[in-house]
Amino acid sequence: MTQDDSVIKNFDTWKKFLGKRVVQAEKLGMSQDTISKLAFEIGEFLDEKVDPANTQNRAIKELWDVGNDEEKQTIAKLMVKLAKDNA
């Protein structure tokens, strides 16, 4: 297992990891809209390439799979907020 694998398998670690990235992006001057768009793209990638390693990620994937693009954007924005609160 690589370090990247362990980040995805532990939900609390994943939230902290994402939170730090959100804070870094803000410090670099990225807008919330840009950060949310990136979160959406990451969500699409994870949905296609990564099997959820825990129940929390599985629940998010199931919501993602049934959502339309607008709902997925909402999920991405909420994940950014959650991650930032856990940075």
Please characterize this protein's 3D structure.
- It comes from Paenibacillus odorifer.
- It holds the Pfam family DUF3243.
- This is DUF3243 domain-containing protein.
- By secondary structure, the protein is mainly alpha-helical.
- It has helices at residues 3-9, 11-27, 32-49, 55-66, 69-85.
- The protein has a single domain (3-85), classed as Cytochrome Bc1 Complex, Chain D, domain 2 (Orthogonal Bundle).
- Helix content is 82%, strand content 0%.
- It is globular.
What average pLDDT do the residues reach? 86
Shape: globular
Question: Alpha-carbon distance between the termini?
Answer: 24 Å
Number of domains: 1
Segments where pLDDT lies below 50 for 5+ residues?
none
**Which fold does the CATH topology refer to?**
Cytochrome Bc1 Complex, Chain D, domain 2
| C-alpha Rg (nearest Å) | 12 Å
Query: Which percent bin holds the helix content?
Result: over 70%
Helix/strand class: mainly alpha
Features:
87 residues; mainly alpha; Cytochrome Bc1 Complex, Chain D, domain 2; 5 helices; 82% helix
